[in-house]
């Protein structure tokens, strides 16, 4: 906790300094030099004795990630708690100010469940995936691409960043085929991502804009007008892999990947993950997260984090606390590498 407080305080300092630097002025920054200095003084007041060490760690992380891409899957309690939501969007803006190209893929399970119940549409899960009839996809698209997507992009902009909300159907961003479940379940209109429009994403990222992507994909060829429901973890992992991102983070509602005694596994290789799925240590909704974390790493992503989105500023903590090595804070979550 002490390390995290140090990271947050010093990241605030970096943010304040960069917000006044040429080329990094935030759209929301209108404060005078005097007020900026006052804010800087407050941020550094009571700094820990190892302030310089933590500052150096953040500087190393920022230098190694400047101009690189970080993809984050955003969902769970981090989306439903107003405080965590505000903190997450502030983290996105801080990373943008540090020169990081950041892309958000969001879920919205609780919001979809609430709307399905409201309109009387039944749904169920098989193997961690929501079975998606036409009615379920219609509701999911309405919720994800409408209110949820625009709220996230708007909150990032209100915090001083730049963001644009996109559906996976926009400009054929996520082209999909019907997912065939390995256990023989008919999942309905659940999509397997066949291709990603990386040209569109790179154009936005090069402009300093954070794409906020809703995981509703589009069909291919004769099925081009079909909407597919795509698991947000699946979409984030595939997008990160196609972009050859430096990092991909999956924010979840548990501490990370746990063993059968419910103890955290802080680091895993891709081979470790596959073995844990085979022996059923990893089950249910955690399978898509770890499977696409490993797929992203195998496609060239340097490291994947499965981390607790209930921790305030989890995104900033994991991205900056590991320095140039990029292995995270070491204070929670699971880091997956090759």
Automatic annotation (TrEMBL):
Gene3D superfamilies: Acetylglutamate kinase-like. Pathway: Amino-acid biosynthesis; L-arginine biosynthesis; N(2)-acetyl-L-ornithine from L-glutamate: step 2/4. GO terms for biological process: L-arginine biosynthetic process. Residues 1-23 form the signal peptide. Keywords: Amino-acid biosynthesis, Arginine biosynthesis, ATP-binding, Kinase, Nucleotide-binding, Signal, Transferase. One of its GO terms (molecular function) is acetylglutamate kinase activity. Its EC number is 2.7.2.8. It is an enzyme of class 2 (transferase). GO terms for cellular component: cytoplasm. Residues 69-307 form the Aspartate/glutamate/uridylate kinase domain. This is acetylglutamate kinase. It comes from Fragilariopsis cylindrus CCMP1102.
